[in-house]
C-alpha cells in the first residue's frame, strides 16, 4: 500500500486523483485542505482540515503529519517553495516530495529573477518589463512603456493565479465601460491612488499588455522525453489543443535551460503575432486535467510513478482538439 498525501489542491485535481485510484488499487489517498468543502475529499481514503499557519509553522506541521500518517509520497501545492527548501528533511523520514529542488524553483517563483535568468535563451521571447516598489517608479515605468505599447498592465512580482493583475484602462468609466469586464481594469488615477497609500509596496511588474491569445502548456520530463500539451485558453469553457512548433520549441529551450523534473506549466501570450513567455508554474496547473483528458494520459500518475521508480509509457497524438467540461454535482456530507 502506497500512502499519498495531497495538501490544499485546486478542485480540478479531482479528475486526476480519480483516474489514478482506478489504475492503482494499492494507492491509499490522504487529502487535506483549509477549505472544509474541497471537492476532492470524496475520493480520499482519509481527509483532514488543515490549520491556517505561516510558512515556517506549516513546514513543521507537514513533517509531523507525514510521520503521524506514514506518508510515503507527498504531492504539495500550498507553500510549495518552503516545503521544497526543506526537501531533505522529508527525505530523512522516508517521504518522497513531488517538488523540484529549491534553488531551481525559487528563481522561477519571482518573475524578474526568472526573466533575467532566461534572457540568455535565444528563442525565448521575454516581454519588456519594469520592476517597481514606489509610486514614483510606477509612474515612470508607465510613461516609458506607454510610449511604445498601446496598453500597459501590472501585477505583483510574487502572485498566484493572477489575482493582482490589473490592466490600466483610462476609458473604464461611462457608457462604453458597461460592455467591458471591470474586475481587472483600473484607470491610471485609481492605480496611482491605491499605490500611494504606502511609501514602498511589494515589488510590482509593469509591462505591456499582451492582447493576443494565451497558451498554457502542461509539461513533465520523463525518460521517454518531455511531455508538452499546449492549451489555447479562451473566455469560454472550451479550450483548443494545438501543437504549434514555435511554442513547442520554446518549451524545449526553456527545459534545456531549466531542467525541471516534476510537473510544470509554462504560459505564453501573443502580441502582434509574437508569442511571449509570461511565466512558469512549478506545479500542475489548475487546468491540467483538460490537457490530460485530451491526450488520454495522466501527468500526475506518471509523475508519482517516477517518484516510486516506475516509468509509465505515454504517447501524444499531436492532433488538434477542442476540449471542454461540464459540472458534476457531488454530495460532500450528510447529516
General description of the model:
This protein is α/β, with parallel strands linked by helices and 335 residues long. It folds into three domains: 2-99, Rossmann fold; 105-123 and 212-323, D-amino Acid Aminotransferase, Chain A, domain 1, CATH 3.30.470.20; 130-208, no CATH class. It has eleven helices and 16 strands. Strands 15-14-11-12-13-16 form a six-stranded antiparallel β-sheet, sandwiched between helices. It starts with a strand and ends in a 12-residue tail after the last strand.
Summary?
By secondary structure, the chain is of the alpha/beta class. Helix content is 30%, strand content 24%. The protein folds into 3 domains: 2-99, Rossmann fold (3-Layer(aba) Sandwich); 105-123 and 212-323, ATP-grasp fold, B domain (D-amino Acid Aminotransferase, Chain A, domain 1, 2-Layer Sandwich), CATH 3.30.470.20; 130-208, no CATH class.
The CA-CA distance between the termini, in Å, is 31 Å
Q: Classify the secondary structure makeup into a structural class.
A: alpha/beta
Principal-axis shape equals globular
Tally of alpha and pi helices: 11
What is the average per-residue confidence, as pLDDT, rounded to a whole number?
Answer: 93
Q: Superfamily at the CATH H level of the largest domain?
A: ATP-grasp fold, B domain
Q: Main sheet, how many strands, which sense, barrel?
A: 6 strands, antiparallel
CATH C-level class of the largest domain is Alpha Beta
Instruction: Give the helix level as a range of percent.
Output: 25-40%
Q: What's the architecture of the largest domain, going by CATH?
A: 2-Layer Sandwich
Low-confidence stretches: none
CA-based gyration radius: 21 Å
Report the portion of residues in β strands.
15-25%
Q: How do the strands of the widest beta sheet line up side by side?
A: 15-14-11-12-13-16
Order of helices and strands: EHEEHEHHEHHEHEEEHEEEEHEEHHE
- Total beta-strand segments: 16
Amino acid at each position: 500500500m502506497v500512502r499519498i498525501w495531497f495538501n490544499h489542491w485546486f478542485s480540478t485535481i479531482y479528475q486526476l486523483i480519480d483516474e489514478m485510484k482506478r489504475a492503482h488499487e494499492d494507492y491509499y489517498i490522504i487529502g487535506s485542505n483549509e477549505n472544509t468543502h474541497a471537492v476532492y475529499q470524496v475520493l480520499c481514503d482519509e481527509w483532514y482540515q488543515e490549520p491556517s499557519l505561516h510558512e515556517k509553522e506549516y513546514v513543521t506541521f507537514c513533517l509531523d503529519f507525514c510521520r503521524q500518517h506514514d506518508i510515503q509520497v507527498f504531492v504539495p501545492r500550498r507553500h510549495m517553495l518552503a516545503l521544497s527548501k526543506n526537501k531533505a528533511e522529508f527525505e530523512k523520514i522516508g517521504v518522497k516530495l513531488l517538488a523540484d529542488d529549491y534553488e531551481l524553483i525559487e528563481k522561477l517563483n519571482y518573475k524578474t529573477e526568472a526573466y533575467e535568468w532566461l534572457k540568455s535563451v535565444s528563442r525565448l521571447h521575454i516581454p519588456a518589463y519594469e520592476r517597481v516598489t514606489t509610486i514614483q517608479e510606477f509612474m515612470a515605468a508607465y510613461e516609458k512603456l506607454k510610449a511604445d505599447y498601446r496598453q500597459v498592465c501590472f501585477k505583483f512580482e510574487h502572485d498566484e493565479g493572477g489575482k493582482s493583475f490589473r490592466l490600466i484602462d483610462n476609458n473604464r468609466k461611462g457608457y462604453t465601460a458597461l460592455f467591458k469586464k471591470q474586475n481587472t481594469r483600473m484607470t491610471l488615477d485609481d492605480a496611482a491612488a491605491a499605490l500611494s497609500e504606502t511609501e514602498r509596496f511589494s515589488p510590482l511588474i509593469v509591462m505591456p499588455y499582451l492582447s493576443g491569445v494565451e497558451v498554457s502548456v502542461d509539461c513533465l520530463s520523463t525518460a521517454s522525453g518531455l511531455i508538452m500539451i499546449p492549451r489555447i485558453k479562451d473566455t469560454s469553457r472550451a479550450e483548443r489543443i494545438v501543437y504549434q512548433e514555435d511554442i513547442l520549441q520554446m518549451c524545449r529551450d526553456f527545459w534545456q535551460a531549466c531542467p525541471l523534473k516534476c510537473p510544470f506549466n509554462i504560459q505564453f501570450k501573443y502580441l502582434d503575432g509574437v508569442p511571449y513567455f509570461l511565466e512558469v508554474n512549478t506545479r500542475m496547473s489548475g487546468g491540467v486535467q483538460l490537457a490530460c483528458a485530451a491526450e488520454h494520459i495522466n501527468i500526475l500518475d506518471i509523475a508519482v510513478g517516477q517518484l516510486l521508480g516506475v516509468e509509465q509509457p505515454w504517447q501524444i497524438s499531436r492532433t488538434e482538439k477542442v476540449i471542454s467540461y461540464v459540472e458534476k454535482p457531488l454530495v460532500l456530507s450528510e447529516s
